Amino acid sequence: MKQHYILVGATLCSLLALYGSSAVLLSGTRASTTEISTLDREHYHRREHHSLRKHLQQTLVPHLEFCRIRDTIYLLNDRYIEISLQRQTAILHYRNGDSLVIPISSGNPAVKEAISTPTGIFSVQNKSPEAISRQFGNTKMLWWIGFNYNVGMHGLEINSYYRHLGKRPSSHGCVRTGREDIETLYKLVDVGTPVIVYDSTAPARIFAFADTVTFDTTKAIHLSSRTKHLSAMMKQRLQALYGGRLFTEQPFALYMNGTTPLRPGGYESGLAELVITTQQKPLLTLQHGANEHRDYFAALQRSVDKTLPARTIAPDTTSTEEPLLATPKPQQRKRTKKQPLRP
């Protein structure tokens, strides 16, 4: 008998629980079909946008603050030369992604009257099928490609230096290559072709090919010369990059057209290991505000808001308040051409 009562009680409890869940579901359904008031609608959108903003920050901040930023110099031409003194290689990069790798042997300061090959951002200054080095016994330098004063790329008539190519520095300061390789490179580059030389794992400044259609040269600085003002600016820009202030202090682009050669001396290429990983968040300068800045994520949220689908919500028919009438736009007066004065 007791077991019968217990079974009936359990059945009633399960029915009550099922009824309660059904009531909750029905009440939720009725609540969803009820029109939402204006205040609730604004609160809903505000909460949704806040969650979206939080999601964007959580997603983008790691990429903005913990990726290693470089100072990019954009190129309008189709190729540039990259020389790594650590790997003893020279690479000719093409816009289409192709590359030509050439083994080299750079300057060795241990050799008598020799210097290390200078590092930095340069461009091809001059070319000649044959040049003479009067400093070192009128040595013939074949397929000369000069990029910094009397330092350049070339081959030699002798073969003894071939065993050092791609392995160790052995020259007096220039970049030695094989005769066949330098002849090929000579025919592929022109005066003004950008050259970057670095003696580390990676430089703090890099080259990147710019989109020649969308890149706005009026809002960027052209590295066409080497004035005192540009040299000071490039040094300050590198220090700002090391300190994590590049986007806040100098938020503008640099570019080279690939035809105008830089003056000898070039600019410092920097060291990537000195770049601080946590960079300050970039600021966007508004076009119509001279010195007005906005947070990057706020501007990004506004752009996302424009892409959100429009939400159509039925008007609140239960409200006794009269709907607000939209104020009509003032009609613009048509401009008429002024008639010329009669004499």
Biggest sheet strand line-up:
5-10-2-3-4-9-8-7-6
Please tell me what the overall shape is: elongated
Oligomer: single chain
The chain-level structural class is: alpha/beta
Largest sheet: 9 strands, mixed
The name of the CATH topology of the domain at 71-285 is L,D-transpeptidase catalytic domain-like
Task: Please state the CA-atom Rg, rounded to the nearest Å.
Answer: 34 Å
Number of strands: 15
What's the rounded overall pLDDT mean?
77
The SSE string, one letter per element, is HHEEEEEEEEEHEEEHHEEEH
Uncertain runs with pLDDT below 50, 5 residues or more? 1-34, 60-66, 283-297, 307-313, 319-327, 336-343
Report the CATH architecture of the domain at 71-285: Beta Barrel
Q: What's the end-to-end separation, in Å? A: 122 Å
Q: In DSSP terms, counting alpha (H) and pi (I) runs of 4 or more, how many helices?
A: 6
What is the top-level CATH class of the domain at 71-285?
Mainly Beta
**Fraction in helix:** 25-40%
The fraction of residues in strands falls at 15-25%
The CATH superfamily of the domain at 71-285 appears as L,D-transpeptidase catalytic domain-like
List keywords for this structure.
alpha/beta; L,D-transpeptidase catalytic domain-like; 4-stranded parallel β-sheet; disordered C terminus
